[in-house]
Amino acid sequence: MIPRTIAAAFLETDEARWLAPMAAALCRRFEAHLIGAHGVEPLPLLGGDLASDPIVYPEFVDWQRKEAAEIRETFEHALKAEDVQGEFRTPSGVRDALIDFLVDSCRAADLVISARVPGHVGRAGDVRMQEQLIRQAGRPVLVVSEAAQLNNPAQHILVGVSCSREAMRAVHDMLYLAAHGARIDLLSVSPSEGEREAVDDLRDDLAAALDRRGFDVTLLDRMKTTSEAGDALLHTARERGAEMIAVGAYGHSRLYDFVIGAVTTRLLEKSHLPVLFSK
Asked: Domain UspA spans what residues (predicted)?
């Protein structure tokens, strides 16, 4: 599988400086078209009914437009440097539904790339936008950081396997980024012997299917104890020397994620590698 359309979701100017060149380089490897989608901060409201028109700070709007122009310039420079085709999209009006715009701009892509958002208070809005991108776009989202980029098809991928729809999508979505003959580790993190047995047949089927595609497949098991399953994925990826992790995203309800914790959240916060999330 080769991605022919890739979308890069830009939230901040600083991130665009390294994310745009990385996305353009990956598009050159795949001979893919690159869509740059700029998601901007929501407008503040000054009192009154939320249904009424917001009172817009002129300075805030000017800042938004300036940032969009800077990101566009960075994006177009990256396209030219890698000699790839692409287009840049940003909201045309300050009252646009910004999360919807970002998600809709990426839905036609084979693959979406987004920068990992630091979890500090000043980026809370960006964290929510990235979560909605993963939940709503219906496309696999590759989350990278400046220190954990992916410039070429991956030679070694760790895949988290469970009996869930999201996990199965991750197994197949990672084929977009796997190099020919890549090493694929299929990892099951099970809290009990009973649950481990439930995925054995599934993993055997997946291993056989990937073997038919020419991949070098290894089956791995880790028992989940008191630690997070996300920690087990990260530890195993480091131990095995993987270049990328692929997992199903947000496989539980929001309440479960809030009370119990979620692998998705853990990987978004802590991963030292690019992570492909499939929902």
From this structure: 155-277
Residue 125 reports pLDDT greater than 60: yes
Looking at residue 54, its amino acid is: P
210, part of any domain: yes
Q: What tens digit of pLDDT does each residue of 162-187 get?
A: 888 999 999 999 999 999 999 999 99
Where residue 123 sits, what CATH number does that domain have?
A: 3.40.50.620
**The token pair that represents 109 in the structure block:** 């892509």
- pLDDT (0 to 100) of residue 256: 39
pLDDT above 50 (res 52): no
Residues 187, 143, 130: CA angle, nearest 5 degrees: 120
Burial of residue 120 (CB within 10 Å: 0-12, 13-18, 19+) is exposed
To the nearest 10 degrees (0 to 180), the angle between helices 58-82 and 13-30 is 30
